[in-house]
Design brief:
With about 525 residues, this protein is α+β, with helices and mostly antiparallel strands. It has a domain at about 305-520: 2-Layer Sandwich (Chloramphenicol Acetyltransferase), CATH 3.30.559. Helices cover about 20% and strands about 20% of the residues. Strands 13, 16, 19, 20, 21, 22 and 23 form a seven-stranded mixed beta sheet that branches. The protein has a four-stranded antiparallel beta sheet with strand order 1-8-6-3, covered by helices on one side. α2 packs parallel to α3 and α6 (about 355-365) crosses α7. The protein is elongated. The N and C termini lie far apart (about 60 Å). This is Dihydrolipoamide acetyltransferase component of pyruvate dehydrogenase complex. Pfam families: 2-oxoacid_dh, Biotin_lipoyl, E3_binding.
Length: about 525
Amino acid sequence: MPEITMPRLSDTMEDGVIASWLKQVGDPVARGEVLAEIETDKALMELEAYDDGVLEQILADAGARVPIGEPIAIVGDGSGAAATAGAPAGSSGAQSGSAAAGSTGAAGSAAASGSDGAQADPAAASGGGVADAPVSGNSGAQAASTNPAADGGAQGNPAAGTGQGGSATSAGSSGLQGSSMPGEGRPDTTTTASGRPKSSPLARKIARELGVDLAAVTGTGPGGRITRQDVESAHRTGGFAAAGSGAALDPGTSGDGHDGIGAGASTGSAVTSPSAPAEGISASAPGAPLPSGDYEDVPLSRIQQVSATRLAQSMQQAPHIYLTSAIDVTDLLAFRADLNETLEAAGKGKVSVNDLLVKAVASTLRADPAVNVSFAGDKLLRHNGIHLGIAVATPAGLLVPVVRDADRKSVSEIGAEARELAGRARDRKLRADEMSGGTFTISNLGMFGVEQFTAVINPPESAILAVGAAQDELRLNGTEVVARKILRITMSADHRAIDGAIAAKFLQHLKDLLEHPLRIIA
């Protein structure tokens, strides 16, 4: 069966988040039809079907973060979907009372394949936040488990120990027994066949990061499934793995059970979660959960998460230097007004001050190529093309669409392209190639009345220009005091790649162009 895998949708993408599924299990799909929306580090993008067929399985729930290349769905001829929907509870490899023997026809239930009826929970991740593929063959092998006891050979739920329950399973002729879970002999629909609490891949990842014991979390999702919100709520109220319970993992493990940390191996010697408050430390200490009601969790979008990482790296790795120049844009504003009248008469769109600024920066970079570079360890990469990024604020975070070959385009062409890119950025409809390859970025906060600010360099670029609002200021013109429009721009440069004198020369050239606007279009 053809697997649909997480594609690489941008040059910096390492994984993607399933924003939503637009098709359900059993739906027919055509080649090129949109199956799902994927949130990348830069935008919300559509995932198209590779082939005609039927969506037989969804292997990663909405909200799951999946590494590139990992399977997220299966499209086949429809037989797999029928088997998934109609698999009888308690086939040849499963005993009655097994958590794997669920109700029939439930979407997202375990898929059975092979003569021994071995079952796999589509929500059960194997370390990477991706659901396991259905088990096939006739060996009766069970799907990979994230139960820490799985590799250590010890049976029993890591949090519940060897308590009573009727959720034991045997997969195929090998008779591998599952974990015991509370339930007094009745099927427990809140756990997987391995005895692990049912949870979304995203919930498991967050639980590992926060040190939350999923066995102690009450799920509020469908069928008692643990969601991200459940994990975050448990974290706020102190739902951590307790020392001595056998549930806590060594901080060096990945939490997927593949490091040999078995719950039953050394009861009472488990390492406490690094997030758990240590004895004698106030609950208000850093890392401890705050009292309920003192704050509200606001999850970051994928774009915000990646931006936070990249900008922090930029500040840590690139020594920033800042140069500010005050530019008299009185003539530039008058020139723009005249130009827009001409463009309007010709039936063309108007241009903004930012469009003129983009063109001026592009022309200056062509004249001063020493700024159009990237630092690469023992060398500089001097870019032949001048591709200007324009920072755009969107509800999901900051995006930087790129105007390519800006030095070769007219102001009118730059204006039309910039408006179109900014609009699609706010709608999260940009293509990956429209947000990559920039060599210099412009960030303009003048529309908010900000007079001056500094911006963080967008790696791998070596410079960014922060543009403020034009302000009325009194200037001496000969013997007269006149009111002029003064615009302040601040250049942030990576001192590893750009010396202060080079940056100063660049600003001097740019200032000359902006104060003599006819030269911009010359």
